[in-house]
């Protein structure tokens, strides 16, 4: 999407320099930092340190990491090494494993001499596919928003509460939860987005930054304000992203999503999750029991980043010295709390049968 009027993807391959370029999200919204990714270790660090983040973007980045490694050494051992280094960076978003599995399946059968070119093309393809998938998520989500708008007075906005950042900066472009928001705005349907800050990494800041650059009306709030807004009739729908969905419709997303789903259920507000099909893990049914939840560095909880009065971005401690902290980065919302899943093929109810209506190729052999 656009930053100060200039179109960007979240990552792109610089053919002149033969290197991947990323927007280092750790500095947003205060600094717009583009950096190259010169080594496999830098690819792993970029994912682990969340310089690039968001389930689909992590997958695309990993595909370019494999391509980089094939350009250095296209042997079977090197292909395995690239997977081993990248797969251990973050455990929850299934898109990382999905991309690495796709690279393995595509490259292993090839002669090593053909792998570098094929790997780079595959990374380009995965990125381009992500853009189109997310655009289609927006098309189907727009229909939903249009239906809600039809029941409102002229000019009255559709009020959408979102959590974390499932925006264009979390994907290659468009975003997942944000794609319907952008497309509704661009179609002239008034929307207002309630943006939860999303402690501890405050990815809501990224959503506010994105929406601001696209001119989409929004309000930045604490996470805990969401339930209050729902109780007071200020929310027409909740729309979030997903890091891993199960075949029965459970969704794993940023920590705090479950609490917002509970509040939505309690206030009879539709709760939708937007996800590309690579985010569905068809091998898993019970998300709570089976999805690994990343425990991140506890310093992310005890400290916070911001810009000081001198304009410098710095990290400060918010908790007492020595206070023990935790940092589970995701939680699982059971399917019973999910109204629907907005995918590139349409909207499914959060149950196996309706998901298979859209993705019948995953129906298990009896
Ligand atoms: C389309 S992004 C999906 C998902 O990924 C984010 O996780 P993280 O910021 O830790 O990479 C967040 O949970 C988004 O909802």
UniProtKB/TrEMBL annotation:
GO terms for molecular function: S-methyl-5-thioribose-1-phosphate isomerase activity. Substrate binds at residues 53-55, 90, 203, 253-254. Pfam families: IF-2B. The record marks 164 as: Transition state stabilizer. GO terms for biological process: L-methionine salvage from methylthioadenosine. Pathway: Amino-acid biosynthesis; L-methionine biosynthesis via salvage pathway; L-methionine from S-methyl-5-thio-alpha-D-ribose 1-phosphate: step 1/6. Its EC number is 5.3.1.23. It is an enzyme of class 5 (isomerase). It catalyses: 5-(methylsulfanyl)-alpha-D-ribose 1-phosphate = 5-(methylsulfanyl)-D-ribulose 1-phosphate. The active site is at 243 (proton donor). Keywords: Amino-acid biosynthesis, Isomerase, Methionine biosynthesis. Catalyzes the interconversion of methylthioribose-1-phosphate (MTR-1-P) into methylthioribulose-1-phosphate (MTRu-1-P). Belongs to the EIF-2B alpha/beta/delta subunits family. MtnA subfamily. NCBIfam families: eIF-2B_rel, PRK05720.1, salvage_mtnA. This is Methylthioribose-1-phosphate isomerase.
């Amino acid at each position: 999407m656009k930053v100060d009027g200039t179109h960007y993807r979240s990552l792109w391959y610089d053919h002149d320099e033969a290197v991947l370029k990323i927007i280092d999200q750790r500095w947003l919204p205060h600094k717009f930092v583009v950096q190259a990714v010169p080594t496999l270790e830098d690819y792993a660090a970029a994912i682990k340190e969340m310089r690039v983040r968001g389930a689909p973007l992590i997958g695309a980045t990993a595909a370019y990491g494999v391509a980089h490694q094939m350009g250095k050494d296209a042997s079977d051992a090197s292909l395995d090494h690239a997977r081993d280094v990248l797969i251990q960076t973050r455990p929850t978003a299934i898109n990382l494993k999905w991309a690495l599995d796709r690279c393995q399946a595509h490259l292993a059968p090839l002669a090593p001499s053909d792998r570098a070119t094929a790997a780079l093309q595959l990374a380009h393809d995965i990125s381009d596919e992500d853009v189109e998938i997310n655009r289609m998520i927006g098309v189907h989500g727009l229909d939903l928003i249009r239906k809600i708008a039809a029941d409102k007075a002229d000019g009255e906005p559709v009020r959408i509460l979102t959590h974390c950042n499932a925006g264009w900066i979390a994907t290659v472009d468009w975003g997942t939860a944000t794609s319907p928001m952008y497309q509704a705005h661009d179609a002239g349907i008034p929307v207002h987005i309630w943006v939860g800050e999303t402690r501890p990494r405050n990815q809501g800041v990224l959503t506010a930054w994105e929406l601001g650059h696209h001119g989409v009306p929004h309000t930045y709030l604490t996470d805990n304000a969401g339930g209050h807004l729902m109780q007071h009739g200020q929310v027409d729908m909740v729309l979030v992203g997903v890091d891993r969905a199960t075949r029965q419709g459970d969704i794993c997303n940023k920590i705090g999503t479950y609490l917002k789903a509970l509040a939505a259920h309690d206030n009879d507000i539709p709760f939708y999750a937007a996800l590309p099909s690579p985010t569905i893990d068809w091998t898993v049914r019970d998300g709570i029991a089976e999805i690994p939840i990343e425990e991140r560095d506890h310093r992310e909880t005890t400290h916070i980043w911001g810009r000081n009065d001198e304009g410098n971005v710095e990290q400060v401690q918010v908790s007492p010295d020595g206070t023990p902290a935790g940092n589970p980065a995701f939680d699982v919302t059971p399917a019973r709390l999910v109204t629907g899943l907005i995918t590139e093929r349409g909207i499914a109810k959060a149950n196996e049968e309706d998901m298979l209506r859209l993705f019948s190729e995953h129906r298990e052999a009896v």
